[in-house]
Design brief:
single chain, alpha/beta, seven-stranded mixed beta sheet, 41% helix, 16% strand, globular
């Protein structure tokens, strides 16, 4: 299948990337764990060479079905970042017999934060995004989104091809909203179904809503460890791959 990358040898792992990225986002983490994990990462629906979006399906449903089809036959370790982490969490809930461990790197399950100060701050920061998209200014919407959720490089400082890639996929953000803000998939009431140990990873410099989400998940997941990486923001698998890999290695040990 096109749009799938593989690294390393060892126990099988499936890694799911964030919105507006692609499977290559895992390269630094996967190389650092190549002696420990045989990692597979697909380009998710609408990203890279991944499957085309089916507008008749809920986006989170379609990505979950894609990820489920990528699960190795053997019990595996699941690793997800941001949107991909919400899909990994769903797989751990719905396919518990196939998951040995769950690493959630800043899952953007905003419903978990409720009406927290961090959630209100986040909503305010992105309040103009819908209007930009409605007017056809996808680049402006991507610029606004990345100001909150990017890796520290402003949209206008990125190469033109990267700007175009992100603007062309900014539709993913509203397409995900029912699942992330409304918990359409009903993940929160089912957190107790996760049977494997879970690692919650976050960056100290990430948007405040992430800490609110992680605190809520830490309260309800049965076997959980929460770790904060100093100096890191939301894109920590890309900006701090060695630190992320070290925490995953310690968790798996």
């Amino acid at each position: 299948m096109s749009g799938i990358r593989h690294w390393g040898t060892g126990e099988p792992a499936l890694a799911l990337h964030c919105s507006l990225a692609h499977a290559g986002a895992w390269d630094g983490v996967a190389r650092a764990l190549a002696d420990r994990l045989s990692m597979t990462a697909p380009d998710l629906v609408g990203h890279g060479r991944g499957p085309t979006r089916d507008p008749a399906q809920d986006y989170h449903d379609q990505v979950t079905a894609q990820a489920k089809a990528c699960l190795p036959e053997a019990v595996c370790h699941l690793i997800g970042h941001s949107f991909g982490a919400t899909v990994a969490l769903r797989l751990a809930i719905e396919q518990p017999d196939r998951v040995a461990s769950l690493t959630l790197i800043e899952p953007v399950l905003f419903a978990a934060a409720g009406d927290s100060a961090g959630q209100r701050e986040h909503s305010s920061a992105l309040s103009g995004m819908a209007a930009l998209m409605a007017s056809g200014d996808d680049a402006g919407a991507a610029r606004m989104f990345l100001k909150v959720w990017g890796g520290g490089v402003p949209f206008d400082a990125m190469p033109e091809a990267q700007q175009r890639y992100m603007a062309d996929r900014i539709w993913v953000i509203p397409a995900s909203d029912a699942a992330l803000s409304g918990d359409r998939a009903g993940l929160l009431p089912r957190l107790g179904r996760v049977r494997c140990p879970a690692l919650l990873l976050e960056g100290r410099r990430s948007p405040r809503v992430i800490a609110d989400i992680q605190a809520a998940l830490a309260e309800d997941l049965p076997d959980v460890r929460r770790v904060v990486i100093e100096g890191a923001g939301h894109m920590l698998p890309i900006t701090h791959p060695a630190e992320v890999a070290a925490e995953i290695r310690a968790f798996l040990s």
